[in-house]
Amino acid sequence: MKIKVVTDSCCDLPFEYTSAHNIQVIPLTIIMNGEEKKDDLAETMQYESFYEAILNGAMPQTAQANVYQFAEIFRKCAQNSEPVIYIGFSSALSGCVNSARMALEEVKEEYPEAEMAVVDSKCASMGLGLLIHYALKQIKDGMNLQELVEWIEANKLHIIHWFTVADLNHLFRGGRVSKAAATFGTLLQIKPVMHVDDEGRLIPVEKVKGRKKSLKALVEKLKEDIVDPENAEVFISHGGCLEEAEEVKKMILEECPVKEIKINYVGAAVGSHSGPGTMAIFFKGVKR
Question: Hey, where are the domains in the chain?
Fold first, then answer.
């Protein structure tokens, strides 16, 4: 039987994509203006209204998926003798993977013969989405569950993440930069260029002055790190700045032509911490 792929809403894949590939997406919860909403890939909470609310002063918080949500899906797959894999948002940034592992142990006690796996992607946003995109190709080529787990573990750290933000204060609220760095960086128009390291953490790598230079820096990083560009697929995610994302796409195609580029929003769960104006690129490279 074909492997069932499960992920969480931090994958930032388009809803149309997950639906077309029968991917089960577990939503994180967004608490904003006193209301709880599900981050369901913009099916009920549109990206535009989410970012507009932040620009108008809303300060959203997030709650991870719980053990029950995972156990419900794992149990259903076990009952149907359907192999299932959860490919989760980096454990360095969320507790979702831990919840999934607890759920797997619980369901395994009831169904010891069930084929189930949990993988910590060490990826974020459409970096997780890109890893899933490649995993689906392996399933299509006939990999069984154990082979797929081994393939993901061997390849996940080749998914390269580079990103920048428009407002450092969102990263300060999430504990990613100090208050002083956020204050002085904002005053001086300093933009961080960051990546996700092998532990799945957000790490500042360098600082540039001005928005345009920060976007250009992302393209330069791609040119340095990408492998086999003529056959490469690049994902771009953005925090409500589609026009700039299209500009980044144009720069990539002009300076390092690749096979395909997909653009989507940074979803509500990730965007709650990175804020409007986030720009990120994801691709396959030799190492992070």
Answer: 4-156, 158-284
